[in-house]
Structure formats: C-alpha cells, structure tokens
C-alpha cells in the first residue's frame, strides 16, 4: 500500500506535490504561530525532512559528530544542503571565533529563514545557489554536475552533508566529491549520509538498479538514491579521501531501531 501511494506521489507534478506538502504542514504551522519558544526551529512548511523532533535529531547528529571527529569550538564547518538548519542549530552552542559555520542550499526560502533567525550568531552564514534537483528544485538554473563550490581551498576542518547525496545522481555526486577534498584542510573530515548497498545486495525500496547507483523511482530519479559500497569507496580513494567509519542506518531493517543514529547510513571520510 505504502509503495503504491509513493508511486502515485512521485507521478504527481512538482507544483502539486509541493502544494500537498504545504497543506499537510498547515495544522503544525498554526500551532507554530502561537508557540512561545521557537529556538531555531523553523515552521513545518520550510522543512524538507522526514518525521521526528527537529532539535532532538539535530542534537543526535551533533553528539555523534563530536564523538567521532576531533572537532573543537574553533573548527570551520561547511554544510552542504543545510536546509533550514536542523544540523546547524546545536553548533550555535559550540562554535566560537575563529570557528565558523557556513551552510548552503538550493532552496531560497529555508536559507532566507536561516539568515533571519541566525542573525545574532555572527560566525554563522547561509548561502543560496539555484542548483537544479528534480525532487526539490526542478527549475534550478545551475547543474549540480557542474556547480563549482565558491569557497576557498584548504578552509574547512569538517564538511557535513545529511540526506543530500541520497537525492543526487552519479555525475552530480562525482562533481561534489571532486571538490570536497580540496576544500578540506589536511586530515579534514567529510561526515555524510547515504543509502549504502553492498555489491549485488538487493532492496525493494530501490528497484531500479543502474549499476553503481540504484533508484527508488524512475519519474523522479532523485527522490531517493542508493549507492554501491565499492563505488563510494573507489570515489573516495580517487579523490584523496578514505572511509574511516560506517554507521549503519535502520532503513534496511524496515523499522526504527532506537539506538541507531539515523534512518540513513552515515559515512565518515578523512582527507588523506
Ligand atoms: C532531506 S533535506 C536535508 C536537509 C538537511 N541536510 C537536514 O538534514 O536537515 C535535503 C536537502 O538537500 C538540498 N539539496 C538537494 N540537492 C542539493 C545539491 N545538489 N546541493 C546542495 N543541496 C542540495 C535540498 O534543497 C534539501 O534542503
């Protein structure tokens, strides 16, 4: 039943899908208007993320990053596909000058919201680039396969990207991977989430096997994208990264597992 509903959902044109999302957000956003404490929590209509408590999930990722990387308050962080700041929120209590957080996204309204709501945090900046993505921004002007990151090389200690490569095609991911190591300082870390399948492993959620990547849906190819582990390992190595940890997500188990960090698999890469 769920699979059928999902198929119908992706069959619907982008504008109508967006409208349905906005309608479903209304009850939550009415409560939001009257909520007293907003604490860097955006209204639901701006959140392009799954269910769950916004702050709790951000904190869970933050704690996992702290436990698994050597970052300190002076760290320089770049977040690719920061959305409306779920991951950046806990960093406001951690980073201090000369530490810095830069996040960018391909959607204007979450970035506009972040710019306004993080204005008191002077070491936080948010950038918008109109990059095309068939799920989020089909009318974007810049191809993700050609986008050049407008940040100086050897700048960041940590690059984060949660639930972004899971919505990108192979040539787009390859373009990002060719630039990420250059932006990182020596021994810098890429902390990113994926749907990972080992060689030949099958998944009902990803019925369209394109070799190195597998798709959930053909009409909207970036709806959800899985990667073969050996492909990601090779992609890392040719670009000067090495996988130092894989934290399995619960997506393959079909039900939430409490002590897991997330639904998606988390991969930690170190610049060699
Ligand atoms: C599922 S949301 C996750 C948002 C945020 N990372 C989080 O975990 O809360 C995916 C985000 O990736 C962004 N995105 C999609 N394609 C992108 C690309 N090529 N480059 C950067 N961001 C992208 C979308 O606009 C969206 O905000």
How would the blueprint of this fold be written?
Blueprint: H1 2-11, H2 14-34, H3 54-68, E1 76-80, E2 100-105, H4 108-117, E3 124-128, E4 156-161, H5 170-183, E5 184-194, E6 196-197, E7 208-209, E8 213-215, E9 225-228, H6 229-238, E10 241-247, E11 265-271
The chain binds S-adenosylmethionine.
Would you mind describing this structure in some detail?
This protein is of the alpha/beta class and 272 residues long. It has a single domain, classed as Vaccinia Virus protein VP39 (Rossmann fold). It has six helices and eleven strands. The strands form two sheets. It has a seven-stranded mixed β-sheet, with helices on both faces. Strands 6-9-8-7 form a four-stranded mixed β-sheet. α4 links the parallel β2 and β3. The chain is globular and about 50 Å long. The termini are far apart. The site of S-adenosylmethionine (SAM) has 21 residues, from loops.
Helix percent band: 25-40%
Give the strand content. Answer: 15-25%
Please identify the top-level CATH class: Alpha Beta
Average residue pLDDT = 94
Number of helices: 6
Give me the CATH superfamily: Vaccinia Virus protein VP39
Helix and strand element order? HHHEEHEEHEEEEEHEE
Low-confidence stretches: none
Overall, the morphology is: globular
- Describe the strand arrangement of the main beta sheet, using strand numbers: 3-2-1-4-5-11-10
Structural class per helix/strand content?
alpha/beta
CATH topology: Rossmann fold
* Major sheet attributes: 7 strands, mixed
- Distance from N terminus to C terminus (CA atoms, Å) equals 46 Å
Bound small molecules, by name, code or SMILES, are: S-adenosylmethionine
Q: Mind telling me which CATH architecture this is? A: 3-Layer(aba) Sandwich
Number of strands: 11
Give Rg in angstroms. Answer: 18 Å
Number of domains: 1
